[in-house]
Design a protein that fits this description.
Radius of gyration: 16 Å
CATH architecture: Alpha Horseshoe
Helix content: 55-70%
Number of strands: 2
CATH topology: Serine Threonine Protein Phosphatase 5, Tetratricopeptide repeat
CATH class: Mainly Alpha
Distance between the termini: 11 Å
CATH superfamily: Tetratricopeptide repeat domain
Number of helices: 8
Strand order of the largest sheet: 1-2
Largest sheet: 2 strands, antiparallel
Strand content: under 5%
Shape: elongated
Length: 172
Amino acid sequence: MRLLAALMIALPTGVLAAGSDTTTPPASPACTNGKVKDAQSGQCVAPKDARLDDAERMQAVREYAYADAFDAARMVIAALDNPEADNALTYNGFIARKSGDMEAAMTWYRAALEINPDNILARSYMGQGFVTDGDTDAARAQLSEIRARGGRGTWAEASLRLALQSGKTSSY
């Protein structure tokens, strides 16, 4: 909780405004049991429901992943039209890292970055994994990449910077 408070103080106010930084952790899941909120009806529906698009599904993936509801997040990832998109691979990595499987996490992050080298969220999560493993040089390299790719002032940059400073990663 102190890390979150420090991030809130350290970041410019606008960065945390709703919708201004897509790397910022989402709110609690809008649905439960792997269901996804359909924007048009407002109902929670099965993740394969034809009314959903991948943007809605990915929002649910993020919500479930940050809430440590990893099975639900995986269920929604499997329902994506493109489960091999870089953002889906990034969240597979996040889930693996938070589950303690650092080797799998790094494999997922590398796959995401192969598709999209500008994926600053994958770089932040990868860097936090490096911090956890004590490889601060590799984490600093990811922080430099985030900044070089336009990520200065984002949640992705700030969370990795704070992880490097404190030696502790956030829940995000």
